[in-house]
Amino acid sequence: MSKKKILFIMESLAGGGAEKVFLDLLESFDRNRYEIELLLVFNVGVHLDKIPDDIRVRYIYGRRPGLWRRLREHAVAMRNRLYRSDIRKLLKDERFDCIISFMEGPTLKMHTYVADKAPRNINWCHINLEDCHWTSYLYRSIEEERDEFARMSEIVFVSAGAKEAFKRMFGYDQHLHIIYNIIPTEKIRRQSLEKTELHTEKFTFLNIGRLETAKRQDRLIEAARILRDKGHDFEVWIMGTGTLEQRLRKQIASLGLQDCVKMLGFHKKPYPILRQTDAFVLSSDAEGYPTVICEALTLGKPIVSTLIPGVDEQLGDGAGITVDLTPEALAAGMERILTDEQLRHNLSEKALKKAATFEKDSILNRIYSLIDP
Predict the structure, then answer these.
(1) What would the mean pLDDT of 254-281 be, rounded to a whole number?
(2) Which residues share a beta bridge with 124?
(3) What is the distance between the alpha carbons of residues 40 and 70, in angstroms, rounded to a whole number?
(4) What separation in angstroms does the CA of 265 have from each of 33, 58, 241, 281?
(5) Could you give the CA distance from residue 79 to residue 335 in angstroms, rounded to a whole number?
(6) Which of these ranges, 30-34, 53-57, 78-82, 228-232, has the smallest mean pLDDT?
């Protein structure tokens, strides 16, 4: 039996959760059934060296656009003609059995320009677009964005909340599926035992995520101030990079939290650091089905998170504490974990039980059924 030819499209391999999930998916895909190619819009990202060796990789642009190009892209028609010309010039007359764009936004837009090159076209939507409509800059209207999604054979969402938000936002409900992310639990636990130069000295909360608006690390820093002012002795570690790094550092300095809140930057091996910290905290305004929560559950970490779609599916059965979207509520949840040892023990046990429900083979089979209906 000949292999099906699959083209994956990704904007880049930056340090976000979707990119990590994507690489786990590539590693797990059945090579006996599928020949896989990867097309990157931008050949950048901290995860480039993790692409499996047997996958052919191509890219449209060698780096992210400079100032002149970004200015030109404000002219929507010009940008669209440019994108369409560049991707079609790269792929020429090639054909595929299925094309999968593994993100919304620019990844989907590039996909629509070559959708005629495959009989099956699948898009993954990784976020609740109703809460965080970050893709709006690409479109002149909601209707235009809806029409691009409608060109797909199937649309996959990483949570029920993201799917329902999409239906409300676009008034579109055809060929929509929920497929949870693959979580390599054994790999996470194995890598968590590796050595790290970072070591905790106090009770330590860890946050992992891009330093961008939707992640709301500013809310976490304010929650840390509230706890510090109440006399608690602890640290908050924030792991990640992004456009808001300098703003967050200034916030930490202005509140006098330099001895309490640590900015760790990006780490290629986060699991040994996650393993030794005492609790995990998520402060976001919007997510899809946050991978970092799954990773924390896998290592049995007590979790406190803002209550947002996606997280409610992960922690709604008591596997963690969920709170309102205010610094005060986040601080109160963190204080409960910090001061109650029995609560931490109970949450850790529930986290490990929840992690046992992550089943890779069933997730892969659902994906294969979309490629080969």
Answers:
(1) 95
(2) 156
(3) 18
(4) 39, 28, 5, 17
(5) 49
(6) 78-82
Q: Tens of pLDDT along 44-55?
A: 988 898 999 999
List strands edge to edge, sheet with 56-61.
56-61, 34-42, 4-10, 98-101, 120-125, 154-157, 176-178
> Tokens 């792991």 appear where?
239
Q: How big is the chain by its Cα radius of gyration, in Å?
A: 21
Sign (positive/negative) of CA torsion 89, 90, 95, 98? negative
Indicate the SS3 state at residue 321.
strand
Q: Check: CB of residue 121 under 8 Å from CB of residue 115.
A: yes
**Cβ-contact 140, 131 below 8 angstroms:** no
Share of the chain above pLDDT 90, in %: 74
Alpha carbon distance 121, 175 (integer Å): 11
Section 226-250 average pLDDT: 96
Rounded to a whole number, what is the distance in angstroms from the first to the last CA of the chain?
17
> How many CB atoms sit inside 10 A of residue 142's CB?
13
pLDDT in tens, 181-220: 888 888 999 999 999 888 899 999 999 999 999 999 999 9
| Among 296, 301, 305, 297, residue whose Cα is nearest residue 329 | 305
Picking from 282, 208, 217, the residue whose alpha carbon sits closest to that of residue 251 is: 217
* Residue 153: both structure tokens together: 């054979």
From CA 9, how far away is CA 111, in angstroms rounded? 7
